[in-house]
Amino acid sequence: MAAIISTDIDAAAAHLRAGDLVGMPTETVYGLAANALDPTATANIFAVKERPAFDPLIIHQASAARVLAFAKNIPSAATKLAALFWPGPLTLVLEKTSVVPDIVTAGLTTVALRVPQHPSALALLKQLDFPVAAPSANPFGFVSPTTAQHVADQLGEKIPFILDGGPCRVGLESTIVGFPSGTPTIYRKGGMAVEDIELALGCPVNLLEHSSSRPQAPGMLSQHYSPGCELFLWDNIEQDAAIGQRDAVVLFGDRGAKYLSERPRNSLSIHNLSPEGNLVEAASRLFAVLREINKRGYREVSVELLPERGLGRAINDRLRRAAARE
Ligand code: TXA
Ligand code: MG
Questions:
Q1: Nearest ligand to the CA atom of 27
Q2: Count of CB atoms within 10 A of residue 188's CB?
Q3: Which CATH superfamily groups domain 230-323?
Q4: How far is CA 131 from CA 116, 117, 134, 173, 242, in A?
Q5: YrdC-like domain: from which residue to which, for each copy (predicted)?
């Protein structure tokens, strides 16, 4: 059985009502959606993604009021961020109510909530009388999908339906903010810049760093987004003394491209996240480029990191995780 790829929102809703999994577009990445209040349907998400252990899921709804109904004791900072940035690429981790099934939160007392900013996702969610749990629609450890075809390529044999909402505008997963002991803390850098969150709250926020052995939050393992080859990361591509033996290079802006054009470089294949140096464009292209690298079967790829500001911080985070070895 191969998944139907379609723009039919009613059909997607019918599948979700029947307890099926559906590939759902959002502005960040495509999600693997199921009825969040149906423990069997949500358990199926873990089976299809082949997650080795249960990792908590994000609950999606069409409005802040509807999604915040699954949380209690909401800190005022969270209310503020919800009002300012939803719908948008932001996930809030809050104390959960008893309505949320344990399988969704992997037994935690907190739940991750989000209102996605995508017209098809919002239209779909509005039709349903239940919330939707959706992790990124990729097998565990792989790059997140940013088109319906990416979902079909990896999960098309395992799910009946993919709602096609076009390529994802943001292209990076949502930024996750939690409030341990009431302190706003970034659990995952993503499609909303940390600077914008700090500006909104009027104070700096804590950053949770990744760890390869002891993740401080679930799903924070450093090795992730595996591109199937060795990635070498540099602040400046000129630092790579072995550039001649690489199969490909990933660049941002025109500096590296100019440098490489001035040296002999055999068959080096060049992928530029944004020749104009635009961080938003780079974010939207990142996963497609990592996917392309995987598909072409390169062995060694040299990557120039982006400036550590705005979305550049989240993109560098994904690149570092993609480069991490166990
Ligand atoms: O942009 C996104 O967030 C996409 C789209 C589909 O909405 N979803 C997504 O889901 O990236 P997923 O499952 O791939 O990543 C969710 C992350 C995981 O790392 C998980 O550990 C974390 O959110 N998470 C979920 N609930 C949590 C909780 N209660 N406390 C801490 N982290 C949590
Ligand atoms: Mg994911």
A1: 1
A2: 22
A3: Threonylcarbamoyl-AMP synthase, C-terminal domain (3.40.50.11030)
A4: 12, 15, 10, 19, 51
A5: 6-192
Q: Identify the pLDDT of residue 318.
A: 87
Instruction: Looking at the CA of 180, name the nearest ligand.
Output: 1
Sorted by sequence, the CB contacts under 8 Å of residue 43 that are 6+ apart come out as 103
| 87 prior amide bond cis, ω within 30 | yes
Atom of ligand 1 nearest to the CA of 58: 25
Does the Cβ of 176 fall within 6 Å of ligand 1? yes
Contacts of 70 (CB under 8 A, 6+ apart): 59, 96, 97, 99, 100, 111, 113, 131
3.60.15.10, 3.90.870.10, 3.40.640.10, 3.30.70.360: CATH of 4-207: 3.90.870.10
Residue type, 199: L
Cα of 262 from ligand 1 centre, angstroms: 43
Least confident of 12-26, 85-99, 280-294: 280-294
Mutating to test ligand 1, I would choose from 97, 124, 173, 206 the residue with most ligand atoms within 8 A of its C-beta, which is 173
The reported pTM is: 0.86
Assess whether the C-beta atom of 135 lies below 6 angstroms from ligand 1. Answer: yes
Please state the domain extents for the chain. 4-207, 230-323
Distances from the Cα of 123 to the Cαs of 24, 34, 42, 115, 255, in angstroms?
A: 11, 16, 21, 12, 43
ipTM here: 0.99
In terms of Cβ atoms closer than 10 Å to its own Cβ (0-12, 13-18, 19+), residue 157 is exposed
Distance (Å, whole) CA 254 – CA 14: 48
Structure tokens at 178: 């939690």
Average of per-residue pLDDT values in the chain: 91
Indicate the helix (H) or strand (E) that contains 279.
helix 279-296
Q: Tell me, using a 6 A CB cutoff, whether residue 136 lines ligand 1.
A: yes
Mean pLDDT over 188-199 rounds to 97
